């Protein structure tokens, strides 16, 4: 039915399957509605950027050599941002007051900052001990991009910086990939919905809300299905419904207990299992596979995540998020890692890769105190997961990998 694999092998299996995707449907979307979406078509500059030699400071447009002689230059005018100088070509003995963002007048080759000059009776002189280089405080036309240059590649996820650049290129809308729909199923007789008052032996269905939030943050479109009790019929019904989405994600029902039925029911649908466990903590029971094409519906990938909340969220970031980003058309389909310095020693554990709730502040990271993979309070105190390799102890001050979330 599958196999238990090492952590790095599981990452490689997911990445390999992600490369099989056909590009999703494309659609034109208004610029501000593209936040979090993935570009389906590259954005190109519609004109040179900047479109003129641009001043980067408030100051005076001059000929640098003339100013450096130390003789006063006569101020003959002013250029504000959005204006063009219409007077004569700037002479060596003259200066024009200029504002940040304004175009450099013809004849000038530099801008001296206003705080670097002395002003007397309509003239300016460079302060003693200072020099001005040609080209200083000026961005030449076209140095950021030339008209027709690709400035944003297809496969780029759109955030504020990309919105700004696209707007500067005159794009009122962008061609982006459609969001991947993700069906989310929480399983377990112990679950009740959030608005219900649980009995002492029951818990609220927090996992489906957490997973829906993670799907949305990763650029997908979540659909929370009804809780599936630990019954073949209910699980079959959720699978039949959920396979209409591009990705199906379960939480719970994938361990080795008598009532953990998800894998069994998936097998009845003819599922192919790529792995049925990963040597990691938390998250060992995670399952990844594919349902075959059936009754005209295409094949669909699925993940079975552990029911413990931290386990579900860690395994989502490691495996589901990269797959979801690939489904949405993003070029990069790997977990998001960084590095940080461990601020307290951590004992090793043989046989498993550990990803523990941690708090990263600046370049330092520390594991938060937690009571196991059901500790939602500890997970909320964390802002990342610290990675520890099997079978080795870590010293304070070591640089480790950190999984971002």
Description:
Helix 1 runs parallel beside helix 7 and helix 4 (206-217) runs parallel beside helix 7. It contains eight helices and 27 strands. The protein is elongated and about 90 Å long. The chain has a six-stranded mixed sheet with strand order 8-5-7-6-10-9. A six-stranded mixed sheet has the order 17-14-18-22-21-19, sandwiched between helices. A hairpin with a 2-residue loop joins strand 9 (117-120) and strand 10. It has 405 residues and is an alpha/beta fold. It has helices at residues 7-18, 64-68, 160-168, 206-217, 232-242, 262-268, 309-327, 376-381; strands at residues 4-6, 26-30, 43-44, 54-55, 59-62, 73-79, 94-98, 110-113, 117-120, 123-126, 138-139, 150-152, 173-177, 181-186, 191-192, 203-204, 221-224, 247-251, 272-275, 277-281, 287-291, 300-305, 337-342, 353-361, 364-367, 384-388, 399-404.
In spatial order, strands of the major sheet run 8-5-7-6-10-9
Mean pLDDT across residues: 94
Q: Kindly, what is the distance between the CA atoms of the first and last residues, rounded to a whole number of angstroms? A: 31 Å
Low-confidence stretches: none
Largest sheet: 6 strands, mixed
Structural class by secondary-structure content: alpha/beta
The value of Rg in angstroms is 30 Å
* Shape designation: elongated
Strand proportion = 25-35%
- The share of residues in helices is 10-25%
What's the helix count? 8
Strand elements, count:
27
């Amino acid at each position: 039915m599958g196999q238990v694999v090492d952590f790095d092998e599981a990452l490689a299996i997911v990445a390999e399957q992600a490369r099989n995707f056909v590009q999703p449907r494309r659609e034109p979307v208004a610029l501000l509605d593209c936040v979090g979406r993935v570009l389906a078509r590259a954005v190109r500059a519609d004109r040179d950027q900047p479109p003129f030699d641009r001043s980067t400071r408030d100051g005076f447009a001059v000929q640098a050599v003339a100013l450096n002689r130390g003789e006063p230059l006569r101020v003959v005018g002013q250029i504000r941002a959005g204006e063009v100088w219409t007077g004569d070509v700037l002479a060596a003995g003259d200066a024009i007051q200029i504002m940040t963002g304004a175009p450099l007048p013809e004849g000038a080759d530099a801008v001296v900052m206003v705080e670097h000059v002395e002003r007397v009776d309509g003239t300016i002189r460079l302060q003693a001990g200072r020099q001005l280089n040609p080209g200083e405080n000026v961005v030449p036309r076209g140095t950021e991009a030339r008209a027709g240059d690709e400035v944003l590649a297809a496969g780029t996820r759109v955030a504020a910086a990309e919105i700004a650049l696209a707007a500067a290129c005159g794009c009122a809308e962008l061609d982006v990939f459609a969001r991947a729909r993700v069906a989310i199923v929480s399983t377990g007789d112990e679950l009740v919905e959030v608005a219900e008052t649980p009995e002492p032996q029951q818990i609220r269905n927090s996992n489906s809300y957490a997973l829906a939030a993670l799907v949305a943050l990763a650029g997908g479109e979540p659909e929370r299905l009804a809780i599936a009790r630990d019954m073949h019929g209910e699980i079959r019904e959720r699978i039949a419904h959920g396979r209409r989405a591009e990705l199906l994600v379960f939480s719970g029902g994938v361990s080795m207990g008598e009532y953990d039925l998800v894998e069994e029911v998936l097998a009845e649908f003819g599922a192919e299992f790529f792995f049925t466990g990963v040597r990691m903590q938390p998250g060992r029971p995670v399952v990844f596979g594919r349902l075959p094409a059936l009754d005209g519906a295409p094949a669909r990938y699925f993940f079975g995540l552990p029911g413990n909340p931290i386990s579900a969220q860690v395994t989502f970031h490691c495996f589901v998020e990269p797959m979801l980003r690939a489904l949405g058309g993003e070029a990069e389909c790997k977990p998001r890692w960084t590095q940080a310095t461990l601020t307290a020693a951590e004992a090793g554990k043989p046989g498993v890769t550990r990803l523990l709730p941690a708090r990263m502040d600046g370049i330092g990271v520390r594991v938060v105190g937690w009571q196991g993979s059901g500790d939602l309070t500890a997970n909320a105190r964390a802002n990342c997961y610290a990675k520890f390799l099997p079978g080795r102890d870590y010293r304070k001050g070591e640089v480790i990998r950190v999984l971002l979330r």
